[in-house]
Amino acid sequence: MKIATFNVNSINARKDLIKRWLLEKNSVDILAFQEIKCEESKFPFEEFNELGYECEIFGQKAYNGVAICSKFEIKEIKKGFGDPFWDSQKRFIEAKIEDLTLINIYAPHGEIEGEKHIYKLRFFEKLKNYIKENFDLNKDKLCVVGDMNVAKDEIDVWDPELLRETIGFMSDERETFKNFLSIGLIDLFRECKKDESGFSWFDYRNAGVWRNEGMRIDYILTSNPLKNLCKDIYVDMWTRKRRSPTPSDHAPVVAEFNI
Fold it and tell me: How many domains does the chain have?
């Protein structure tokens, strides 16, 4: 089973790129998309159905939005935390697929300080408490994926000194994210690829993708039972290192499991 997390920065702007990637390069079984930037009525269900996927989305007009597309039956779906405050921004979707639970997250981008910064830190506290209350990470097969908008360690950014205390690499963001992981979630890429940068985001504005000047902010996090089934994990740069179809600023992260 292949699971991919991919911030597409508009699903409709990226659908041709994604279709080519799936058909020509990497036939993924389960796709978790972030920042789809559309309501349900505008999502390209038909194109994904033709490729063998059923899709569930939690979207909003022009901003945010998450989706799960699966070649396996989606047995259960939960859109949002079930809390009006947190669900006004569409950032959480959960699905039961086979014998695992997949949670797809688009974490807030935040800002240097102010309300958006506090909201980002509180979002990770909300997510941490939700997982603690609903899962046993020593027994359940749980996979939490998405754009977390935090680079956890110095190896996760191309220039730690230049980027220190900038958005995504601020001390309190990193501390809050590590505290979230401390409940028993495993950063699968870093577990398997201890010395690789694994950058998944590259700024559009400076062509940094061609110099590997990026950040690792897209994650596949697992409980221990699922970690033990991991065969491989990697960043697939095929969709990012191209000029046409127009790429997202993110590259997908793909994990392969013996399930």
Answer: 1
Structure tokens at 217: 């902010």
- pLDDT of amino acid 186: 98
Q: E strand or H helix at 162, and its extent? A: helix 160-163
CB 201 within 8 A of CB 250: yes
Mutual angle of helices 115-134 and 171-181, in 10-degree steps: 10
CA distance 42 to 88: 19
Q: Which residues are the active-site residues?
A: 106, 147
Residue with tokens 């790129």: 17
125 SS3 class: helix
What range does the domain containing 71 cover?
Answer: 2-147+171-193+221-257
Do the domain assignments include residue 161? Answer: no
38's tokens: 């559309």
Tell me, yes or no, whether 141 lies in a domain.
Answer: yes
Q: Is residue 203 part of a domain?
A: no
CATH number, domain at 178? 3.60.10.10
Whole-number pLDDT of residue 122: 98
The answer to the question of residue 202 being in a domain is no
Q: Which amino acid is at 119?
A: Y
Q: At residue 102, what are phi and psi to the nearest 5 degrees?
A: -110, 125
* pLDDT for 259: 87
